Amino acid sequence: MSVTVVSCRAFKHLFTKVRNKDTSPLEFRTYAKRIMAMICEEGLAELSPEPLDVTTPTGSVFKGEVVTTSDIVAVSIVRAADSMLDCFLEIVPEAAVGKILIQRDEETAEPKLFYDKLPPLAGKKVVLLDPMLATGGSALCAVDVLLKQGAKIEDIVFFNVVCCPEGLARFAKEAPGLRVVTGCIDECLNDQKYIVPGLGDYGDRFFNSV
Which of 14, 18, 115, 141 is the most exposed place for a label (fewest CB within 10 A)? Predict the structure, then answer.
């Protein structure tokens, strides 16, 4: 498993805003969108870029690279990840979209699959979206759904905003070959299986349903 932690000087300021319990829902949404946009841009660079030389208006040659986006499927784990899906589609509007509904049992912290609707995944590059990676249970459940629908593990990249060592360790054990792009690796999980220091319930704060 490979893990890319997005390096961005602006994150110190942006994460301070979203982690603050006194940040209003409107502010949280504003700053969270800025973080997610940066993670989505960086994550695209993990999707097999190919070298491409282009000629600039000055007649010079720039040795660049491009990512083919016509074969990307973006899959959100409802509902918190719908916020991240919107950011991703602003960058890659041509992406196909899939949805997976998984809810965590608050007593056992284990995931339960309720619904999935996915386009064909065979031969596609799959971007799995969920802002928080805590125990890893929901994300692994989603990965299992993707694999059963024809995706290959090496073609799945998981974008998230905050993760923790416990979730990453579980991924490394149960989903080797998966790539992860994250904004931050936090310290640990607490006794309630929430990320510490974390930022609370991402979906509730983003959608103002606290």
Answer: 115
State the Cα–Cα distance between residues 200 and 204, nearest whole angstrom. 8
CA–CA separation, 39 and 30 (whole Å): 15
- Give the pLDDT score at 104: 72
Annotated active-site residue 9? The verdict is no
Kindly report whether the peptide bond that precedes residue 197 is cis, defined as omega within 30 degrees of 0. yes
Among the options 71, 86, 144, 204, which is catalytic?
204
Q: Which two tokens mark 135?
A: 């125990």
**29 included as an active-site residue:** no
At a CB cut-off of 8 Å and minimum separation 6, what does 173 contact?
A: none
23 is catalytic: no
Looking at 108, 144, 179, 191, which residue is catalytic?
108
Domains delineated in the chain? 2-206 (3.40.50.2020)
Which one from 104, 105, 186, 205 is the annotated catalytic residue?
104
Task: Give the predicted TM-score (pTM) of the model.
Answer: 0.94
Catalytic residue at 204?
Answer: yes
Q: For a pLDDT cut of 70, what percent of the chain falls above it?
A: 99
Between the CA atoms of 42, 15, 10 and 72, what dihedral angle is there, to the nearest 10 degrees? 10
Region 31-42: mean pLDDT is 97
Write the Ramachandran bin of 81: left for phi over 0, alpha for psi from -120 to 50, otherwise beta: alpha
